[in-house]
Amino acid sequence: MSRIQCPRCLRPQSHCLCPLIPSLDSRTRVLLLQHPSEVNHALNTARLAALGLNNAELIVGEVFENLPVLLNRPGYTARLLFPGEAAQPMKAYGSSDESMLLVVPDGTWRKARKMLHLNPLLAALPRVTLAEGGVSRYRLRKAPGPGALSTVEAIVQALETLEAPTSFAPLLKPFEVLIEGQIAAMGEEVYLRNHSEK
């Protein structure tokens, strides 16, 4: 028998996060392109970000046929949040008056690269990167390297850089509760054995 699911946050009704999800305004428009394999992931942080930001849109797929329409929003300059040789640091845009359309691929690094390969228009976008040294609160998954953040954490850091001094920290509240719930479900002993720093 399957558990009843909240239609909004997609969590089991007994663990619904909706009361914790904020409703935040941003000058920056966030376009989340989520790989299909992430939709049913227990932590689905892209969905949390999309629900908490009024100026955000979440689209699931690998190939995005309507990408030209999605990227050409009047009044917005599209930038891809993804590392690369020519990527500019996000802080370079912090004092800019132009409104950014921040395009965020959501998936493992391998799947995100595949999405760029399958969508040449996406791969051709000018890239921006976050400041180095960000520490993830995502204590359940080993980061592939320093500065590797979950999707919601990356969006919060990007928006706080672009729209300082505005705080987007409330977006992290449901994420933190979700992490705590996962740790509680596995039990502290299992968590410490498998996820604590060695």
TrEMBL record:
It comes from Pseudomonas laurylsulfatiphila. Keywords: S-adenosyl-L-methionine, Transferase, tRNA processing. Belongs to the TDD superfamily. DTWD2 family. It is an enzyme of class 2 (transferase). The keyword Repressor does not apply. The keyword S-adenosyl-L-methionine applies. Pfam families: DTW (PF03942). Its EC number is 2.5.1.25. This is tRNA-uridine aminocarboxypropyltransferase.
